[in-house]
Design a protein that fits this description.
With about 240 residues, the chain is of the alpha/beta class. The protein has one domain (about 5-239): TIM Barrel. The protein is about 45% helix and about 15% strand. The chain has 11 helices and 8 strands. It has helices at about 15-25, 35-40, 45-50, 65-80, 90-105, 120-125, 135-145, 160-165, 195-200, 210, 215-239; strands at about 5-10, 30-35, 55-60, 85, 110-115, 150-155, 170-175, 205. The chain starts with a strand and ends with a helix. Bound molecules: the ligand O=c1ccn([C@@H]2O[C@H](COP(=O)(O)O)[C@@H](O)[C@H]2O)c(=O)[nH]1. Ligand LLZGTKA7 binds near residues 34 and 186.
């Protein structure tokens, strides 16, 4: 199995993230840099992680007018990140513009779109005027994302099997909200365990606090890898 794990470096400073980074191995995982770390440290954080051999998912979830988002996606891709994302709710024209700028410049950075945040449940969606279950809204935004030619979506693992059925294995399903049995749910609503997520068809599992806040992060990571290997054995046995 090529490592499907993406560790979310939700640290305040590069300096506090580096001890964990030094313990990790680029063959075992990719790294996700999000709003907090990037806002404080900027491109130098990407450079430091690239120098250590990691592929980076720059998770800034761009959501603005097409011209602005395309320029931001271009800027991210120029820094050599493996993956970048936008909000699908920004709409078809915005996603087209982002796709187009990468294609015109021959940039291979994966471009994906956030459907419904994993911290949202049906009640939370209703509060913002979306009166359909999360899974329906995910499928609606994923269809738009697919039509706009993006490489995949951010969704919860709970929607992964429906997405696999409609769009196939190649369309990326990047799933945060992963909670192993030993971890707390925190602010996540639509959660699954690593094994369940793998079996449901997640192509990449984003994991933050269950590893980064664990008393022994490397032991937590090893337990997750063991669970994934077991899930893979089961799924191979089923074929
Ligand atoms: O729908 C989404 C989109 C992004 N995230 C990000 O993933 C990680 C999850 O961290 P945990 O500590 O494992 O909860 C975090 O960086 C979020 O910004 C998400 O959770 N849900």
């Amino acid at each position: 199995m090529t490592a499907p794990l993406i560790i979310a470096l939700d640290h305040a400073h590069l300096e506090t993230a580096l001890p964990l980074v030094e313990a990790l191995d680029p063959r075992r995982c990719r790294l996700k840099v999000g709003k907090e770390l990037f806002t404080r440290e900027g491109p130098k954080a990407l450079q430091a992680l690239h120098e250590r051999g990691f592929e980076i998912f720059l998770d800034l979830k761009f959501h603005d007018i097409p011209n602005t988002v395309a320029a931001a996606v271009h800027a991210a891709a120029e820094q050599g990140v493996w993956m970048v994302n936008v909000h699908a709710a920004g709409g078809r024209a915005m996603m087209h513009a982002a796709r187009d700028v990468l294609d015109r410049h021959g940039l291979k950075t994966r471009l994906i779109a956030v459907t419904v945040l994993t911290s949202m449940d049906d009640a939370g969606l209703a509060e913002i005027g979306v009166n359909s279950p999360a899974v329906d809204q995910v499928m609606r935004l994923a269809q738009l994302t697919h039509d706009a030619g993006l490489d995949g979506v951010v969704c919860s693992a709970r929607e992964a099997s429906a997405l696999r059925d409609r769009f196939g294995q190649e369309f990326l399903k990047v799933t945060p909200g992963i909670r192993p049995g030993f971890a707390q749910q925190d602010d996540q609503q639509r959660v699954m365990t690593p094994g369940q997520a793998f079996q449901a068809g997640s192509t990449h599992l984003v994991i933050g606090r269950p590893v980064t806040r664990a008393e022994e992060p490397m032991a937590a990571l090893a337990a997750i890898e063991k669970e994934l290997a077991e899930a893979e054995r089961v799924s191979l046995g089923e074929r």
